[in-house]
Amino acid sequence: MAGDASGAETYTTDEALSRLGFGRFQALLLGFLGTGWVAEAMEVMLLSFVGPSVKEEWGVSGGAEGLITSVVFAGMLIGACVGGLGSDRYGRRAGFLFTAIVSGVPGFLCAFSPNYATLLALRFVVGLGLGGSHVLPTWFLEFVPAENRGSWIAAFTCFWTLGTILEALLAWAIMPILGWRWLLALSSTPCFTLLIFSSVVPESPRYLCSRGKISEAMLVLERIARMNNRPLPPGTVTSEPKRTGDKYDPSVTTVLLMTEDRPDEDTSTKSNRKNTFQAFWSRDLIRSTLLLWLVHFASYFAYYGLVYLISELSSVRSQPKDSSLYINVLVTSFAEFPGLLLAAILIDRIGRRVTLGGMILLCCAFLAPLATQLREGLSIILLFCARTCVMGAFAVLHVYSPEIYPTSCRNTGVGFASVIGRIGTIVAPLTTTALLENHRQKEVVLVMDLALFIAGVVCTLFPLETKGREIH
Question: Does the N terminus or the C terminus of the chain have fewer Cβ atoms within 10 A?
Answer without folding.
Answer: N
